[in-house]
Predict the 3D structure of the following.
Amino acid sequence: GAVVSQHPSWVICKSGTSVKIECRSLDFQATTMFWYRQFPKQSLMLMATSNEGSKATYEQGVEKDKFLINHASLTLSTLTVTSAHPEDSSFYICSTMVNLDTQYFGPGTRLTVL
Amino acid sequence: AQKITQTQPGMFVQEKEAVTLDCTYDTSDPSYGLFWYKQPSSGEMIFLIYQGSYDQQNATEGRYSLNFQKARKSANLVISASQLGDSAMYFCAMSLTGTASKLTFGTGTRLQVTL
């Protein structure tokens, strides 16, 4: 069964609004989660590392004020896309480590900004 | 910085045949992990197989095997007895320190299995 869930699976919003995406680890505690984005027909690019109880670590070129990450509990990390614009339309995927050699991904959230 | 290269944008294979998806990597770190993921049209990333840089034997998981050639810095995925359900995008990825931390992905290979 799935070890990581995401909600919503897809969302359409108007330009200028904010959208929150949830990533939950199921049946285990995740001190670290990762957020990736994937543009159509492209690969996954790491956006940030979400650490439970501390600030997220953002990859170079990712605006931390635009992509707010909160990891308030061991089973939940949220990504909020603030003041979304059409260029933010993408597939957002979270992941977490289960074992040292295994990283499981959530089912992804498809964001479309009109 | 580490880099993953997948040179095959698309591959075709007949059902029940074996297929090899190429992956080369570049890193100066001696400790790293190599992963393969399958992404069907639904978008979900499905973990297939892992190879650690210090592992002596090639990893195998059912119909999947990883042809690890350290000196050539290649980590090709071999799928045996292809099935129609294997049609998907396949991504090679690498993490440093040998643990599943931050992953760097290749550009992917789209595999199409035909009758």
User: Anything to note?
Assistant: The two ends of chain A are 34 Å apart (CA to CA). DSSP finds no helices and eleven strands in chain A.
